[in-house]
Every structure is written in structure tokens, then in C-alpha cells.
Amino acid sequence: YDNCKPCPNLGTLSSCPSPFKCTYEECSNRYYKSGCQSGYDWNASAQTCTPQCASTYKYTCTGANQTGGSGTACGGKYTECTCSSGYAWNGSSCAFQNACMKGSQLGYILNSDMTVTSSKQSGKTPIGVVVCSYSGGGGQAMALKSLGNYVWSTEYVDISGLTNYTSSSSASQDVASCENSKKIMAAGNKSKYPAVWAANEYKTEGTQAGDWCLPAAGIFTSIYNNQSTINTGFSRANGTQFTDSTDAWSSSEGNNYGAWSSYFNGSYGLDWLSKNHNYLEVRPVIGFCKAGYKYDKSTDTCKACSSSYKYTCTSGSYVTGGSGTACGGKYKACTCSSPYTWRNGACSCSSSYNERCIGTGYAGGGGTSCNGLYSWCRCKSGYVWHCDECQRKEDAFSGGAEQPCGGEL
Question: DSSP string of 194-260?
């Protein structure tokens, strides 16, 4: 070979490393890089192989409210990005996130027994769709249909204690639906504040008037940012979906003249309108919590029930229901069918039922029985009920006077 032409000496490798393709140079008895294996791109000038990225690697993560890439990069791009505080990755960008968008149940169905399911379940009655999902569980669900159109107020008053939100960005953070509603109702009756009272008077199977509230503005922002997911829930529950043209009142006030409403062609899905000059839809919401917690309407949060709330009161011998108010679906005690009373975690006979009414002089039980026991007994002729037993009349009234019971003087 050397007698014909000089050796180029391109080969420097004793073997071909992955993921390269190599050419064998006979004169140097070495290999040199000449390409890449399948799945890699060849850079001849740099003599490098770059992985061919899947189509999901498409974000540089340098956009608005993006703080960097999530996971490993491919070709300088990522499958998703991390976001600034108050924002969350929605599959293509960093979207604004309020307290309602931190849980995992958006679009789920709330049933009349206050259970939450991902789809419609046999034997359960849907009453709403989750439009606000708290990170710790629970949230707020919206009624399946509009209650009709109402004005927010018939007067222009700045309601005492109700926050004035002067921008859509600030209103979008408000998720205090029931807290707001309570303050509005305290300011006047339904002739003055028709929208909030319509929400308050709504009821369904498993709920009653007073359970539902006029949604805060942030609820509509949650729907706006998760419209497809939430509308899928409404469809599954046979409810009415939210569209870009849906205009519904919130309980968030702007000032004495106006309040916030849904408007999905505007920033944060909100618009500011005159309280008295606009008849908009009312779509009430109801708070719900996971087991062991109760929804506090004064703060729109879920609070843990005390350990004394431990009975569901839906099963057990002679149990007829819960006694008092429930917390997280449980009670401190249950009610019982007559003549049973609640004692030591079960329905049992009261301590007054301790007579078997069997023996000499006994004619049977008196009154109702409880598990074969009576509180007193009937006696045969010549006997009287005395000192919790049937005694001979002459013994009970010796000498014409009633004799004391054992040990009595």
C-alpha cells in the first residue's frame, strides 16, 4: 500500500463505539467515525451523534412564567416545563392557578350522597361537577343546570365586609363562594339581592336550601383554565356545559356599582358588569370534603372533625339515624327505635329494663319489653308489685303499713 500512495491515517479507533457507525481503514488497521446508528443524527464537522428526540420534546421552557425544564432535555428541549409560583403546567404552557386548581378531582361528579366519582355510577344521583379542587381534598361543585337569569342587586351599595376586587387578576384569586354569599345575604333580602338568594334557596336530592352558594370569581377562572376537563364532567352527568358565551354572576364584588361575572373571551375568564342592569345566569356551588372533614362555609375550607364523630348511623341493630349534626358524614351518637337507647356505641335496652317477670306470683311483664326484659311486672291475685318484685300482699303491707324495701328504715 505504501508503494502506491500514502496512508490517510483517518482511523484512530481500535473498535467502533456506540452509537456511531465506523469505517475500517485497512492501511492503519483502525476505524474512524463516519455516521450514526438509527435514532441519532450525524454531525460530520463535530464528529458527534445527537439523539433524535421524540415529538414530545418541543418546549424550550423560556416562555412566560416558565422557570425551566422538567425532567431531562433532548436537543435542548423538554416535554414539559416548571412554572413560577401561582402558575401550573397545563400541557402546553404555564397557566394561572388559584386555590381551586391544585387538587386532582376537577371534572369529577359530586353525587347526592356527597361522594365524588370520576364518572356517573349506577345507583348514585349526580348533583354537580367539581369545578374547584383543593390540594388537600374536597372543594366546590357546581350545579348541573342554570337556575335562570337574575340581577346581582337592585341597589348600588358597597357591601360591608365584602372585598372590592378592582382587576380581573385579583378577582381570579377569590374562591370564597359561601363566605361572600353570607355577607351579601346579610346586607338584604332576595328583593335586593336576587342572584345570591336564588343560589341559597336551591336544593337537590341529598341537599337542602342553605347548602348552596353563589360562586366566587375564582371559580369561573378555574373553569376557564380547565374548560375541556370540566365540560367533560358536565357531559357525563347530563348537565349543561360552559361555553364562551355563558355569562353567570359571581359573588365577588367590584365596588358599589359593579360585580364580576364569567366571560370566557376576557382575561382570566371574567368580566365586570353593573349589578342592576344585567340579567345573568346563576349556577350555584356547594362545598364538599373528604371523609373525616366538614366544609366550613364561613371560610370555604375543609376542617377536620373531632375524634368523637365516629358513627355513620346507617347500619346496626335498631339504629334509625344520626343524632345531632354530622361532621364528615359521621355522628357522635345515633338514634334508636323504641324502646332502645344509645349506650356505649350501640342501641341497647336502657338500665330500667332489668326484670324477667318469671316466678311465683308473676303474671307477666308490664308495658313494652326490650330483649325479653321489662321495667316492671304484673302480679297474680294476692300479690303486689313492691320493691321491684311481686310480693305477697300481706308481706308488702304487714300490719296495714307498707313495708320498707330491703335495708330501708
Answer: HHHHHHHH---TT--TTS-BPPPHHHHHHHHHTHHHHHHHHHHTT-PPP-TT--BEEEEE-SSSEEE
In angstroms, the CA 324 to CA 332 distance is 8
Beta bridge partners of 128: 110, 143
Of 113, 141, 139, the closest CA to residue 312 belongs to: 113
pLDDT in tens, 24-75: 998 889 999 999 998 788 999 999 998 888 888 999 999 988 999 999 888 7
Tell me which residue of 345, 346, 383 sits closest to 361, measured CA to CA. Answer: 383
Q: Which three cell numbers stand for residue 134?
A: 383543593
Q: What is the pLDDT of residues 199-210, one digit of tens each?
A: 999 999 999 999
**Rounded to two decimals, what is the model's pTM?**
0.65
The single residue listed with the C-alpha cell 296495714 is: 400
- The 3-state DSSP class for residue 269 equals helix
- Tell me phi and psi for residue 4, to 5 degrees: -95, -50
311-315 own/partner pairs: CB under 8 Å, 24+ apart: 311/345
DSSP string, 116-152: EESS--TT--EEEEEEEE-TTS-EEEEESS---EE-S
Cα separation of 132 and 142, whole Å? 9
